[in-house]
Structure prediction request, 151 residues.
Amino acid sequence: MVLKIEAKWEIPYVHSAGEHATRFFEALKEKRILGVRCPRCGRVLVPPRAFCERCYVDTDEWVEVKDEGVIETLTINYARFTGLPEPPYAVGIVKLDGADTGMLAYLGGVDLSDWKKAHERLKIGTRVRAVWKDEPEGRITDILYFKPVEE
Prediction:
């Protein structure tokens, strides 16, 4: 038999975001979303990456995209998971206007307690707009969620 010792560790650390992520997060402080264009295939990648994963070439042309787009896929979660928001909550991939890739984000602005009604408002193809923190800090959580655009 092996003795098991339970303990809680707190290990502070600093993570280097890299040049592309740094520029992306700095733009979020200004409520702007940046991507990069691949010089070979022309795709605009959001969030930005140092290289195009299809062409394997460096990316260095910066492009500002809109904070509106469409839901490409989503899920509404009604189960509780440690470290995540209290259910119900929705997450999805949002493809922003001007981008060729989607970004993972929370979806909101809709009553999620009735899943049938929620799915009428949040579905693939729904146009959404970012809801920003009042005072952005340069983190992905500066975008609180994307909500449906009212026509």
